[in-house]
Amino acid sequence: MHEREVETENKNFFVAVERTLEGECEVEYTGTPIENDRMLWTKSINFQKCTVRPEVQYGIRMHDMKKTYDEKLFSTVMKFEVTGNRDEYLVRDVELESRYKLVPLSEKHELITSFVNNKLTLIYAGRVETRIPNVNFHHRENLIYNSGWEVAEEKFAMTGEETYLQLIPEWKNKMVHIEKIIKKMIHHMEEKVDLETTHLFARLVKLLRLCRERELMQIESFMVGHENVLHKIRSMYYDALAMAGTKVTVTYLMRKIVDERIEHLKAARLLKSLAEVRIPSEHIANEVLRVCESPVAEKVPYLKQSCWLTYGAIFHGLCNNKMLAVLHKEKVCNRE
Fold this sequence. Notes:
It comes from Strongylus vulgaris. It is found in: Secreted. One of its GO terms (molecular function) is lipid transporter activity. Keywords: Disulfide bond, Glycoprotein, Secreted, Signal, Storage protein. This protein is α+β, with helices and mostly antiparallel strands. It has two domains: 13-127 and 136-145, Lipovitellin-phosvitin complex, beta-sheet shell regions (Roll), CATH 2.30.230.10; 149-320, Leucine-rich Repeat Variant (Alpha Horseshoe), CATH 1.25.10.20. It is 38% helix and 22% strand. The chain has helices at residues 148-159, 162-165, 174-191, 197-208, 213-220, 230-244, 247-258, 264-273, 282-292, 295-299, 301-320; strands at 2-5, 13-20, 23-34, 38-52, 74-84, 89-102, 112-121. Helix 3 (174-191) packs antiparallel against helix 4 and helix 4 (197-208) packs across helix 6. The longest helix is centred in the C-terminal third of the chain and has 20 residues, at 301-320. It starts with a strand and ends in a 16-residue tail after the last helix.
């Protein structure tokens, strides 16, 4: 942080350049004395004086879209209630007030204003930690948002290449979490309790999107020993794989379908759900094509129909999906 004092009548005012979540910007601090020897410090980010701003975009992403950095669209103010002095102090309360205006794609539409309000209050001040353990991670990061993780996750979903997975922070004990989720789902099925199943299913899908193929094979072993609900939990697992919609999960499913390890009607439904795959790619389409041209599709007409419709839908989604972060980096549709 580069700090420079500003000579004004108010001695409790200074300006510094800080790296925050919203960029590397000039930040203004103003101190106001309050009761009981406390100070209220107000911190506001000056978006007119930023050297770096994060790339944040919601909704449709276009190559030729004009970027807007109008400082009037953003406002962030933080208030800190502090006791003590510069050498020894205690933060008792923190309030955050942020306002963001989202610019529409068309002038016919109005700005959307988003408000963020947070508050932290000190409940207990315990022993002072003199040492903070180091965080071991192979990539250096800073506070400013970087879309690199988002792009890497999309590229892994599209191609299944583990090099992209290595660019994403690894979930600690990922397989342990998946095993716990499946065991809990099995327990709910055995006890006929469905209240949390939807939430557990969503968590399972999220974790499956970051799984390698060898990990998917390991997951099926978690279901062994529960024969009374094995068919139901395995069916739900296949649904989760389809909803995850990565090249890895699709490859795994297509192999099961080709080997007729999944019932034909269930296979047709799984293929149909892939028509709206979250991150379409040519690699995923080619995996579906493998089923379309397989002997099992030839002998089951409705499976073949579902397969070819899904194959076409994936390419349609790939060439018409404007929501992908990877569009900023490269062209993903080779049929345009």
